[in-house]
Amino acid sequence: MQRKGKKAINQTKTEYLGRCLIFLLVLAIFWPISTYGQEPGFDGLSMSLGSLARLSHAKTRSISPENFTGEKGKAGMATEGTGAGAARELGQGWKISPSVRIEAGQTFVLADIQSPGAIQHIWMTPTGNNRFNILRIYWDGEKQPSVECPAGDFFACGLGCVKVTSLTVCVNPGSGFNCYWLMPFRKGCKITMTNIDEKPMVLYYQIDYVLTNVPQDLAYFHAQFRRVNPLPYKDVYTILDGVQGQGHYVGTYMTWGSNSPGWWGEGEIKFYMDGDKEFPTICGTGTEDYFCGSYCFHKPGTEEYQEFNTPYAGMPQVIPDKKQPKFSLYRWHIREPIRFEKDLRVTMQALGWQSEGRYLPLQDDLSSVAFWYQAEPHASFPKLPDRNSLKIE
After folding, report:
1. Any idea what the CATH number is for the domain that residue 246 is in?
2. What is the per-residue pLDDT for 29?
3. Using an 8 Å Cβ cutoff, are 209 and 120 in contact?
4. Counting beta carbons within 10 angstroms of the beta carbon of residue 377, is it exposed (0 to 12), middle (13 to 18) or buried (19 or more)?
5. Domain termination site, one of 167, 182, 211
6. At residue 124, what are phi and psi to the nearest 5 degrees?
7. pLDDT value at 7 more than 60
8. Do residues 272 and 344 touch, judged by C-beta distance below 8 A?
9. Residue 84 falls inside a structural domain
10. Please, what is the average pLDDT of the chain?
11. Is there a contact between 222 and 147 (Cβ–Cβ < 8 Å)?
């Protein structure tokens, strides 16, 4: 009996070791697939203070007028460029191509990347009217852009350059536009700037990105601009409509030109998702509430507007005017993205006050940029307004 017991124990150990070897073999075969072809380890995408010390095989690259392709070891080699005159006594390597000149009506390709990876930071400082500098971004060879927006509005400066301090967008003195939205792509990325003005523009820019394999559950970044001036009486302003597929809404930027005297921000924002018809799933309680303020954005004890910048929401610019005061507002849904499975529509009411404590539907000048992530393909965007319709008076 004792010999049979030892034999059974040995047989059990052998079976256990066999199972372990099979498991390790399967793990060795499928582990590279589970990391999407990359060497096992950190993909270098989800950056934070908590991940900053982690090593990664991701490759850091940067595109600018000093390296139009982002190739390794190919930066600072220009012999022609906007700085050639200033560097004429110094020669190659001395800031010969720090910027580009984009002629009236011209579309310039800022970046054309043909590898999987992600944009991590964009810096630029365009000259001219930033409502007439149109930024477009295309993912994975698509024909229609996933980002189409005047440059100023994309960087939360639709009313002119002003300091903005937030987690995803920073505008620094004197006109340094920065964005930190993570923008992954699996085949490639093309970024263009179109100058629709009647005069040339000069653009300094740098696009910082990483070459790495992108996890399957990362969606594509989108941004869409809209404007209505004036909003028809009793109409509701549409920030975003026609979105199909799975994704999550991550931010709103608005410029608000008030065409009526008095307070303009009683309207509610509404998110219609996944088949909502007449009534939405999410309904806000007021415009200033949605942008994380309260009581008309007034300074305490006054009726003066208080500009503010915070990581997630702000009103960085107020332009006082008796005829049409203007306001610049942002709200980033970083901690609380609004997730949808099938479809999404976002609207904003424009409401003020009239006599006897009654709401007044307003006919204001409204423009917006909606920011969201979704699985491709995306629905076609509405046609971008022409130059006259983009212009801020």
Report:
1. 2.60.120.1390
2. 45
3. yes
4. middle
5. 211
6. -160, 160
7. no
8. yes
9. yes
10. 92
11. yes
Measuring CA to CA, which residue among 370, 382, 374 is closest to residue 245?
Answer: 374
Residues 183 and 305 in one domain: no
Q: Do 188 and 65 sit in the same domain of this protein?
A: yes
* The token pair that represents 109 in the structure block: 């390709």
Half-sphere exposure of 253 (CA within 13 A, CB side): 24
Pairing of strands 147-150, 220-228: parallel
Q: Are the beta carbons of 167 and 334 closer than 8 angstroms?
A: yes
pLDDT band for position 37 (cuts 50, 70, 90):
very low
Distance separating alpha carbons of residues 176 and 205, to the nearest angstrom: 10
Whether 253 and 359 map to the same domain: the answer is yes
Angle at 359 between CA 357 and CA 363, to 5 degrees: 140
Predicted structure pTM score: 0.89
Residues 263 and 169 grouped into a single domain: no
DSSP label of 368: E
Do the bridges between strand 117-126 and strand 176-179 make them parallel or antiparallel, or are there none, so unpaired?
antiparallel
Q: For residue 206, tell me if it sits in a domain.
A: yes
Question: Same domain, yes or no, for 182 and 248?
Answer: no
Instruction: Return the structure tokens found at 88.
Output: 């004429």
* For residue 5, pLDDT beyond 60: no
Q: 313 is in which domain, residue-wise? A: 220-390
Same domain, 200 and 226: no
Q: How many CA atoms within 13 Å lie on the side-chain side of 193?
A: 30
Say what the pLDDT of residue 22 is. 58
Q: How many structural domains comprise the chain?
A: 2
Residues 269 and 202 in one domain: no
Mode of pairing for the β-strands spanning 189-195 and 183-185: unpaired
Question: 158 in helix, strand or coil?
Answer: coil
Give residue 31's pLDDT: 45
Kindly provide the residue ranges of all beta strands, DSSP E only, lying in 258-356, ordered along the sequence.
269-273, 282-283, 308-309, 313-319, 326-332, 338-340, 343-348, 351-354
Boundary (domain end) residue, out of 190, 211, 232: 211
Alpha helix segments (H runs only) across the chain: 2-34, 151-154, 287-290, 387-390
